[in-house]
Amino acid sequence: MNSSNLRTKLLTEISLIPEEKLEELYNFIHDFRLGVEASQATIEQTMQFAGCWEDMSDEMFADFNEEVMTRRQQAFLARRSDESSID
Fold first, then answer.
1. Percent helix, percent strand, percent coil in the chain, to nearest 5
2. Do residues 17 and 25 touch, judged by C-beta distance below 8 A?
3. Do the beta carbons of residue 78 and residue 70 sit within 8 Å?
4. Are 61 and 53 in contact (CB under 8 A)?
5. What is the rounded distance in angstroms from the CA atom of residue 36 to the CA atom of residue 6?
6. So where are the chain's domains?
7. Each residue of 30-83: pLDDT tens digit?
8. What is the pTM of this model?
């Protein structure tokens, strides 16, 4: 279904909505559109980092990856010890 036909069908459906439900429908459509815009912005921000490690040597990337894993383990262990001290 092309965009023009879909818009026509949407407008037809909207015209059939009872008057007292229009505000609720507007809020739903508005919130949906804002959510779509926000998710697109997030994707664009994330994609700015795509390829940022492209120039990194394999050795440097391996070191980086090891450091990340070590920090995650340390953070997890610290969190686990915090949880066990509550008991």
1. 80, 0, 20
2. yes
3. no
4. yes
5. 18
6. 1-50, 53-87
7. 999 998 888 777 777 777 777 777 788 889 989 989 999 999 998 888 777 666
8. 0.45
Per-residue tokens: 52: 């940022």
d(CA 69, CA 7): 50
**Which pair of structure tokens corresponds to residue 72?**
């995650």
Taking the CA atoms of residue 66, residue 67, residue 69 and residue 71 in that order, the dihedral angle to the nearest 10 degrees is 160
Alpha-carbon torsion 28, 16, 13, 5, what sign? negative
Residues near 14 by beta carbon (within 8 Å), at least 6 away in sequence: 25
Q: Where do we find the tokens 């912005």? A: 41
The better pLDDT of the pair 12, 38 is held by: 12
Distance of CA 55 to the CA centre of its chain: 27
